[in-house]
Amino acid sequence: MSRPLYYCASRVAVGDRVEILLDGCAYRGEVIGMDGRSRKVVVSYNNWQKPLPDGSATRSHRLVPIEDVRLMARTGERRHG
């Protein structure tokens, strides 16, 4: 299987799959909200730093500057915007 391509997200939409970098760790998640005035997006992601008692990751939400969001795309996929 080919590796995903990454490119900076100058435009993202609710529902887009993204990658964010927090405290030196990369997390993959989904955009669930946006604040256009502050240029920030709300990302829901699996937080493996806070596991549940059964060992699974907790679902966390974070308000992230759009410049720190990487939109994920598979090889050959094109996004129009």
Write up what this structure looks like:
- By secondary structure, the chain is mainly β.
- The protein contains no helices and six strands.
- The radius of gyration is 13 Å and the shape is elongated.
- The N and C termini lie far apart (27 Å).
- Residues 1-9 have low confidence and may be disordered.
SSE order and pairing:
Elements: E1 5-8, E2 17-22, E3 25-35, E4 40-51, E5 57-65, E6 69-73
Antiparallel strand pairs: 1-6, 2-3, 2-6, 3-4, 4-5
Produce a short descriptive summary.
This protein is mainly β and 81 residues long.
Task: Note poorly predicted spans.
Answer: 1-9
- Average residue pLDDT: 77
Counted beta strands? 6
* Category from helices, strands and their pairing: mainly beta
Instruction: Note the total helix count.
Output: 0
Taking Cα atoms only, what radius of gyration do you get, to the nearest Å? 13 Å
Number of domains: 1
Shape: elongated
The CATH topology comes to SH3 type barrels
Strand fraction band?
A: over 45%
Summarize the amount of helix as a percent range. Answer: under 10%
| Strand order of the biggest β-sheet | 1-6-2-3-4-5
What is the CATH architecture descriptor? Roll
CATH class: Mainly Beta
User: How would you sum up the major sheet?
Assistant: 6 strands, antiparallel
- Amino-to-carboxy terminus distance: 27 Å
Order of helices and strands: EEEEEE
